[in-house]
Amino acid sequence: MTSTRFLLMLAGLAAVLVLLPAGTAAHGWGSDDMEIFDLVEEVNENFYTMMQINQNATNQEIKRAFRTLSVVLHPDKNDAEDANIKFRNLVSVYEVLKDAGKREKYDKVLKEGLPNWKSALWYYRRVRKVGLAEG
Questions:
Q1: How do residues 29-38 score in pLDDT, each as one tens digit?
Q2: Predicted TM-score (pTM) of this structure
Q3: CB 65 within 8 A of CB 51
């Protein structure tokens, strides 16, 4: 009985180890994609609207908008309780929009939406976040 239980647990573990990487590889999501997905969920606002720019804005326009908003949202200049969070979100959004590759991936998220998080990837992301938070 004990060896049967052990074999079942071993088979279950093997299935998880095989399916978990397959779920992420099948979609081809890399670390940049994962960062963008997390940021979209955290900010919960269109990045272009947040930066007060058009979707076809140039890097110079993005930089100008960032500088303008950073003066307003910087925690040293803004006494609001959530100023620190808003400023960090602004910096993160700026990092995505100024990089052509990340910006293209974000535009794809705008068009297609976020992936279905009720997949193995969703559980992987949650475990990864908890692991980093505890470490």
A1: 788 888 998 8
A2: 0.67
A3: yes
